[in-house]
Amino acid sequence: MYGLLFDSWDENRIRKSNKSNFVSKNRKLKMKSFSLKNVTSYILLVVMVALSGCSENKTETQDIRLITLDPGHFHAGLIQKSMFEGVNDSVYVYAPDGKEVRAHLSLVDKYNTRPENPTSWKETVYLGEDYFSKMLEDKKGNVVVLAGNNQNKSDYIQKSVSAGLNVLADKPMAINVIGFKQLEKSFALAKENNVMLYDIMTERYNIINVIQKELMSMDDVFGDLEKGTTAKPAIVKESVHHFYKQVSGSPLIRPLWYYDIAQEGDGLVDVTTHMVDIIQWTCFPDVALNYKNDIKVLNAKRWTTPITLAQYKSSTNADAFPDYLLKDVKAGLLEVYANGEMNYTLKDVHAKVSVTWNFEAPKGGGDTHYSLTRGTKANLIVKQGKAESYKPALFIEAVSKDTDYEKNLKENFAKLAETYPGVQLKKQSNGWQIVIPESYNQGHESQFADVTNKFLKYLKSGNMPSWEVPNMLAKYYTTTKALEVALK
């Protein structure tokens, strides 16, 4: 039986299947009124589509077609905040019916209808409990976008690449050791089926990280990366995040399961993915890492963030904790294992990574980051506290006794400024601050377009750098192994 295809999402025009997958039994829709003439014309159009057996794919000229699978996280919507050359504007959404998919579609619609530079995505939506098998059966597109509940993500990835579909996945792609082993198999299957599997590492496009990477490549500025010790790591990365925040100008409503580590993932395997990735990307650029030989997790720990029912309600719109969270409720507080710390070595370099989740940021604040990278000639430090007005700032702290250090720094920095016009050095009592024009700070949301464009470049060329896949494996080995150590 044919389903109806529509150019854009509209609750009043959801296509139906013989399994009643597109409209849940309990949904109450506000139907638009049509004149008899409109209804007759509409029916004729439907019949013509059904008889022709036509599909939107047959008339499309673009090679890349997106499939959004079970979009439970707003990152799925951020992928569609921009349009991309070579990507068809028709997107196929497969999901169970509920608030999550509707929030996703509303976000895409917000981008489509914004006054400045609106997008023009056309969402064709399939709703039903068999959404995943239906997606694999239909294969309406060739790139699966994954951003949502992480419990089934490893399975989604493996079955998608097995079906010959490329996958662009939000982090984390694995939330435990079992998931990591499955991910390893998925990369092998992707290679076998000549498709690509890639994760969304937005922090590589943060100008602070880009400039830091450039500075670390300058021998006269940074020197060599120190080895460090467990007590005094060569690399320290600390991140503070918040459950309640604003996205695209509106309060972010979290899915109910977001507070369940079995579905979202423990703090040690979630945001830490970004920090481990940046350590690899900045400290060992273009080097293919071997997780079996290059990484040793020395110790790790985890702890909880207490959430009141009132806080849970304000961030999810739920009146009560769901049954699957009751095991984590102690004395009326939901104890979420969102926080963690790990110490490990990467090619014998000692690194420390920690993440803390609070419910809400202080007034005027937001997510914050602290980073320290020790070189033989200088330390590179990123601060984002109250003193920096909660905006990230990069500092150089000289440790070299070389009297020509400042001269060498300025000469090297002049070359950097040619690549990044407007970037300046500001002398301070204990070093220098890198002053970066606000125009370079496009924000976290815009970085999703950067990642997507990079992935599309790889996809169109048919290959990606040789270090990408082994380093994704190294990253997820580090995080999942840290969780395994912490649980022991």
Number of helices: 13
CATH topology of the largest domain, by name, is Dihydrodipicolinate Reductase, domain 2
Secondary structure: helix percent: 25-40%
Q: Segments where pLDDT lies below 50 for 5+ residues?
A: 1-7, 12-61
Rg over C-alpha atoms, rounded to the nearest angstrom: 24 Å
Morphology call: globular
CATH first level of the largest domain = Alpha Beta
- Give the amount of beta strand, in percent: 15-25%
Number of spatially distinct domains: 2
CATH homologous superfamily assignment of the largest domain:
Dihydrodipicolinate Reductase, domain 2
The first-to-last residue Cα distance is 53 Å
Class per helix and strand makeup = alpha/beta
Average pLDDT works out at 88
Give an account of the 3D structure:
The structure is a single chain. The chain has 488 residues and is of the alpha/beta class. The strands form 3 sheets. Strands 7, 10, 11, 12, 13, 14, 15, 16, 17 and 18 form a 10-stranded mixed sheet that branches. It has a 6-stranded parallel sheet with strand order 3-2-1-4-5-6. A two-stranded antiparallel ribbon has the order 8-9. It contains 13 helices and 18 strands. The protein folds into 2 domains: 138 residues, Rossmann fold (3-Layer(aba) Sandwich), CATH 3.40.50.720; 284 residues, Dihydrodipicolinate Reductase, domain 2.
Q: What's the quick description here?
A:
By secondary structure, the protein is of the alpha/beta class.
